[in-house]
Design goal:
heterodimer, A: mainly alpha, Cytochrome Bc1 Complex, Chain C, 0% strand, B: alpha+beta, Rieske Iron-sulfur Protein, 2 domains, six-stranded antiparallel beta sheet, 24% helix, elongated
Amino acid sequence: MLTRFGNWMDERMGWRSVWEGIFLRKVPRVNWFYTLGSATLFVAVNQAITGILLMIYYVPTPDHAYDSVQYITTQVAGGWLIRGLHHWGASVMVVLVVLHMLRVIIYGAYKYPREVTWMTGVVLLLVVIGFGFTGYLLPWDQKSYWATTVGTRIAGVVPFLGNWILRIMRGGDDLSAVTLARFFGAHVWVLPATLLFLVGTHLFLVIRNGISEIPWKEGRKQ
Amino acid sequence: MESNQKKSLSRRDFMKLTIGALGGLIGLGYIIPAIEYVVAPALAKSQAQQWIQLGAVSKVELGTPTLFKVNISRQTGWIVNQEELSVYVLTDNGREFIAMSNVCTHLGCRIRWIADQNQYFCPCHNGIYDKQGNVVSGPPPRPLDKYQTKVENDQLFILGG
């Protein structure tokens, strides 16, 4: 029954060749450091799922942000878990992305023909940091308020353009409802859309070009 | 033969099974808390009922429904709202009281007492109730909801939330 349904779908979609191309492709014998990218992807999916769930209750305005986050954490069943996964996942995400990048540097995996994979990866690192920066403000407590005050002030020391950048980030001279709303918008729409596009390209290239071998492996073809 | 079949579980099939089982477990680890999280506020019990003070017993007119309005605070999510509760109180002897909600039992519009016709009228779909809150005509499925009442120190209370 299931096989028949699979065949029916395959005849119309050709999904088996896609499945085989993704999951049954040949890879060189490598080590556990090569799983850092997949680990990052897993945490990214975790962030997406828990982030969507948090949006069910979270309200990005100064008079509701803090209370709605407290409501999620203390009143909603499982809310502490969902928020906790998102909170800790954010830190894990940054750590994994950096480790993944170090692996690629040390193994020389950024070289021909994988330069574009590397470039999308570099932009993805910036996107992940952007997620961390914008997400940090959303609970709207003392820590997030002052961290964003300092963070935007740091962006403000850029020569010549600094004050402009600071005002654009804050949506005015001071941190306000405008800042919270635009950080929220960036966090839940702008950055996720960018991430999805870049991760799509990144993964397509990983599969298309295959992964690199361990460069110092014995018996490697020169 | 049987032991042969057991051994025939290949390395690849074993990995498939393990990955499938682990993936399923992780999936459940998300889905179960997620469902709990989404439906939780719907399952929360409504707030505890409490005695709400309407006002002095002497304010209730004999034989005519008298409207009382009281402010109550109600918590929804993380927001505490002030709401106005309107209650019609009827008494024939000044000792026994009928306190009725002004919410039409049809679709929740607010009804009002029309004194010269001696009936309650709901403007939404022409629901009509008599003085005691029983349906006279129109779509309402049941009489007006009644509150439990009590009198203490000449003050009238209803049980609500």
